[in-house]
Amino acid sequence: MQKERLPRDVIAMRVAKELPAGAVVNLGIGIPTLVSNYLEGEQSVLYHSESGVLNYGPLAEEHEKDYDLINAGGQFLRWVPGMAFFSSDEAFAMIRGGHVEVTVLGALQVSEHGDLANWMLPQRGVGNIGGAMDLAVGAKRVIVAMEHTDRQNRPKVVKECTFPLTGKGCVSLVVTDLAVIEVTPDGMVLREVAPDWSAAEVQSLTEAKLQVAPDLREYEL
Amino acid sequence: MAERLSRELMALRVAAELRPREVVNLGIGMPTLVANYVPDSRGVVMHSENGILGYGAYAAEGAEDLDLINARAEHVRWHPGGAAISHTDAFSIVRSGRLDVAVLGALQVSERGDLANWMVPGKGVGSPGGGLDMAAGAKRLIAITEHSNQGKPKILRECSYPLTVAGRVNLIVTDIAVIEVTTQGLVLKERAPGWSTGEIQSETEARLRQVAPVKEMEFIIPETSPPGKVLPDAAAAVADIPDGATILMDGFGGIGGMAHYLMLALRDHGARDLTVVGNTVGIARVSTFGQPPSPGLQAIDHAILVEKGQVKHAIASFPVSPSPSRPSAFEQAYQRGEVTLEVVPQGTLAERLRAGGAGVPAFFTPTGAGTVVAEGKETKIIHGREYVLEQAIRGDYAFIRAHKADTAGNLVYRGTSRNFNAAMATAARITIAEVNEIVEAGALDPDEIVTPGLYVDRIVQRPEGFSPFRPVEEG
């Protein structure tokens, strides 16, 4: 039986719940970018981008495109009041200096110790590190947003990462299309499961050992 | 005995030593007077550690600005083209070897060029201030001082007071003489009007040698204007780039912040075996970063250099296309083994450039600890956390894309196009800026300047109607 997994937008919606109002947040490329669609009103946060802008607003419409206003993914932003511009070296001083509270990153693999691999597929032989390694060590909290398994349905939550690492022991929370998993000093704790999924079913698609939280819940949105 | 020179004449004599466009720091006391005698046409940039570059004479009475002082808290005026900077940037300029001259007062100077100027033993604790940094960091150190203090010589065999710096003084200008410090000791070069060499020696403890006739001091500052920084076109700006050069360029990989006009000129110039340093090695063409406004066009990026075989090595953070199915020209050359590559975390790359520009040779960062990035590098546990030692990067040339420049080379950027440009501008031997608009020195607000002009050697204006896109068939 093929059970339904949550769509990318619901993963993003679940991650959005983790972001405290007013926090400085850096969103990586992919599912993380979608998180901004689910933060509104009082929960608003200050977005930070390695391209050198803080407190940016929504993406620009086609007719508003300006080459001098992009996020780190190369998407065009809209000019909004309250933005601040700075150089890339300062953008990373903010990250390493502990001024970015949360980063949401995509991942190829996450290990049960919270190791993250997200910059290179070994078969390509070359990859883009970009800002991920700095964010992994610099942000106070690293949340991974990803699909639970790869395209061949192999687990991405693993005992040990086999792909080149982005950072060691840096991930705090993993939000997937099946589960919400917390990384603790004693290993991974399964906190929430997608509707209709049991803890055992999630474990069967996970290589790392998951401890089931006593108050295991259905995905809360 | 003849009359001694006034402080003003001593300052004037020191002013004559300052060559066109030199960056000069004036210490507290007599040195600050020098600023009043440097002609504007020389383009000398006065540096003060409290955070100003390019100040001029004292402010007129009634026109003082509490936010515009030199390191002695004297009210000064902006020189056209001046820029406000932070304390940290002020000392980065010193550490990175960009301070050409420091002029300091002296309590004692020795025949080996030792300087003592911050503390008289037995009289309190003393204030070294920025004097130690300036004395150690400046390329030339000029001491300006009365020749003796109540009959006691100040130019000695050995300093008896605590040193400010050892063996760094190049020239001593006093109220009776000009003395050069050489490896063979002190050489008397000039004497004040009416003073004999014998009279000067009698007021000096150290021995003064004469290797050429000692001239009488003159107080004329010839008008010599430095050549302008604004060049007619990009071809002129890149004409001297040799094969094998290391060039800092790119911005962030997108259209904004990339010096397309200079890159085209470099392609036409043809220099080969280049090392390019930047966030990307050309992904605009193969990603959303450089989506053309209409079909049939493609962005100018590093591919124009890679396809001509001009690039040998790259240091980059985002070197290949985000999508493996659309490889960039660089990735294809890499897979063919024609080029080499060092992949660096983005923040480490930015900081390596910043360090290169700030005279910091290496630094510890937590980024990359426990990953392939740390392989072969020194690591250290500091406060329980692992850090990786990363080396500074400096380039032979930097291609900077800015929004606006003034004729003194001061730059302002627009939006997110500042990115890597601001750090790269500080980290090259020759920095070339490509801008949309050039204004006269003084037309930019000194407080809005991001890259002070002392970092910028050449400026070119992007031609009217220049497009960062080219027809696909033109390559």
Low-confidence stretches of chain A: none
| CATH first level of the largest domain in chain B | Alpha Beta
Proper CATH architecture of chain A: 3-Layer(aba) Sandwich
Radius of gyration of chain B: 26 Å
For the secondary structure, the number of strands of chain B is 31
- Kindly name the structural category of chain A: alpha/beta
Could you characterize what this model shows?
The complex is a heterodimer of chains A (221) and B (475). Helix content of chain A is 16%, strand content 24%. With 221 residues, chain A is an alpha/beta fold. Chain A has one domain: 3-Layer(aba) Sandwich (Glutaconate Coenzyme A-transferase), CATH 3.40.1080.10. A 10-stranded mixed beta sheet of chain A has the order 4-3-2-1-5-8-10-11-12-13. In chain A, strands 7-6-9 form a 3-stranded mixed beta sheet, with no helix packed on it. Chain B has 2 domains: 7-216, Glutaconate Coenzyme A-transferase (3-Layer(aba) Sandwich); 234-474, Glutaconate Coenzyme A-transferase (3-Layer(aba) Sandwich). Helices cover 17% and strands 29% of the residues of chain B. In chain B, strands 1, 2, 3, 4, 5, 8, 12, 13, 14, 15 and 16 form an 11-stranded mixed beta sheet that branches. Classes of the chains: A alpha/beta (221), B alpha/beta (475). The interface between A and B is large, with 48 and 53 residues.
Secondary-structure map with pairings?
The complex is a heterodimer of chains A (221) and B (475).
Chain A: H1 8-16, E1 24-27, H2 31-34, E2 46-49, E3 53-54, E4 84-85, H3 88-96, E5 102-105, E6 109-111, E7 116-117, H4 132-138, E8 141-145, E9 157-158, E10 173-175, E11 179-184, E12 187-193, H5 199-204, E13 210-218
Parallel strand pairs in A: 1-2, 1-5, 5-8, 6-9, 8-10, 12-13
Antiparallel strand pairs in A: 2-3, 3-4, 6-7, 10-11, 11-12
Helix pairs in contact in A: 3-4
Chain B: H1 7-15, E1 23-26, H2 30-33, E2 45-48, E3 52-58, E4 76-84, H3 87-95, E5 101-105, E6 108-110, E7 115-116, H4 131-137, E8 140-144, E9 148-149, E10 152-153, E11 155-156, E12 169-173, E13 177-182, E14 185-191, H5 197-202, E15 208-209, E16 215-216, H6 234-238, E17 246-248, H7 260-269, E18 274-280, E19 297-299, H8 303-306, E20 311-318, H9 329-335, E21 340-343, H10 346-358, E22 362-365, E23 379-382, E24 385-391, E25 395-401, E26 404-406, E27 411-412, H11 421-426, E28 428-435, E29 437-439, E30 458-461, E31 469-471
